[in-house]
Design goal:
This protein is mostly helical. It is built from 29 helices and no strands.
Length: about 450
Amino acid sequence: MLRTPADCRPPNIPFLPTFFFDELACWCDGPTTIALLQLNKFVNRSISRSNLLRAAAERLVFAHGLGGAIETAAGRGLEEIVRLLLERHANGTRSEKQKREWNPWQAQILAVRSGNIPTMALLLPTSKGDSRCDELLMTAATLGKTEVMAFLIDRILQYTPDFDPKILDPPLCQAAAKGHCQMIGYLLTLGANLHVWKDEPLREAAAAGSAEAVTFLLDSGSKLEENWPLIHAARGGHAEVVDILLKRGADLHAIQDLALHEAASYGHVEVLALLLKHGARIHSEDDYALRHSARNGHLAAVTLLLSHGANLHAKRDWALQAAAKGGHFSTVLLLLENGAAVNCNDGEALRLAALKGRTEIVRLLLQFGANVHCRDDIALVCAAETGHTAIVQVLLDSGANVSTMDNAALKRASRNKRIETVALLLSRGADATEKRSDAEK
């Protein structure tokens, strides 16, 4: 237990922040935690700041080892405790250092994340050979800490007089991806390349949906290279960014209206409506937009596309087949109600639904007139082979031929050890003798 002199004068500098003691409560054993919290409460009259810092440092070492204590304090931006721990590391015994070896690189990253520049000054390298400055710069750019970036650049310039601005290009892209406009502007003033990798910063900002960053980059001279920013924004469902890019001259027809296809595939209805309003070609690539929104079960997107005249019969009613395979009941119902051919592609929708075990969709297709006998009752054979007994029951009740293709349903169910399905087929008249002779071959 720490002893405090009764005549200790109050310190003239602030004591540790409250959050440190909140965290300390998770690290320390009960009695010591209570003691330190009491010390914090009465710090202005009972204990010197230096003693309190040493006590806190000791508890960190106890909980994490010396190396872990340095990293933890660095991550919290506790400069004075880091200083104490570094001194202890320099003067410590070999066994103490080996207990939990200090990772300088990890501590540097944590210090940058904390944003505490005095702590960074203690930990950052002073020679080029010790540096991994590119990753430190990326960390600062990710967090949008401009003052930290300035400090890092200044430190790099101290040991790298021939500083190459190309090192700022990846941080610029990262800052754009995070929407940190102040950081973007600062890096550009230092010589970062706005057009690096075919205007990658603009693509990153568009993909992230940062309207502010997209506007800032366009105002700074970014180019709509091959219209990929529009495509990325559409894929992410960022309607505001899509609107900005269209107004700035992006070509919504680029790469066979890929922006429309991406928005449809991911079900971004607001973006779809915006692109269609600006004249996107709804039938491009054999109505790709409708087919793939149906495949993914995006009901609202399918509804919007149909209302704009999308062709649900494209590629032999591929949309219905894909929706049935994916188990998207509401989408299948919508397509059927709008006139999709239930027996399209020789009953492929029913076969896929049976194969994948989509019982309710099988019933729905049958209600709309699906033919169970298409391709020699292939739906029954597929359902039996995969062991979907409920679907086998539905198909048999709808008139499917239990002995189709020389008892193929029974043979395949037996081969795959679908016991319940085999029992059902036998009870409905499948030829067990034929099954046994086939097995003997």
